[in-house]
Amino acid sequence: MKETFDVTGMTCAACQANVTKAVQKLPGVQKVDVSLMNNTMKVLFDEKLVSENEICAAVDAIGYGAAAQDQTAQSRNNSIKEQWDARQKKMEEEQKGMKSRLWWSIILLVPLMIVAMGPMMGLPFWQGMEWAMVSAVTQLVLTLFVLFFQKQFFTHGFRSLLKRAPNMDSLVALGASASFLYGLYSIYRMAYGFGFGDHEIVHAAMHSMYFESAAMIVTLVSVGKYLEARSKSKTNDALGKLVDLAPKNAVVIRNGEEVEIDAQDVMQGDLVVVRPGQRIPVDGIVESGHGFVDQAAITGESIPVEKEPGDPVLSATMNVNGTFRFRATKVGEDTTLSQIIRLVDEAGNSKAPIARLADQVSGVFVPIVICLAVITLVVWLIAGKPFEFALSNAVSVLVISCPCALGLATPVAIMVGTGKAAENGILIKSAESLESMHRVNTIILDKTGTITSGNPSIHDMVIMKEGVDENEFLRIAGSVELGSEHPLAKAIVTEAKDRHLPLDQPDQYEALSGLGLKAKLGSSSILAGNMKLMASAGIDIPRTVKDWMDRLAKKGETPLLFVQEGTILGIIGVADTVRASSAQAIRLFREKGIYVVMLTGDNEQTAKAIAEEVGVDEVIADVLPAEKESVVRRFQDQGKFVAMVGDGINDAPALARANVGVAVGAGTDIAVDSADIVLMKDNLMDVNTAYELSDKVIRNVKMNLFWAFFYNALGIPVAAGVFYPMWGLLLSPMIGSAAMALSSVCVVMNALRLRFFKPSFKSVKEEKNQSKAQISVTKDPVKQESKEEKKMKKVMIVDGMSCNHCKMRVEQALEKIAGVEKAEVDLEKKEAVITMDAPILDDTLMQAVKEAGYDPVKIY
Question: What is the pTM of this model?
Answer without folding.
Answer: 0.71
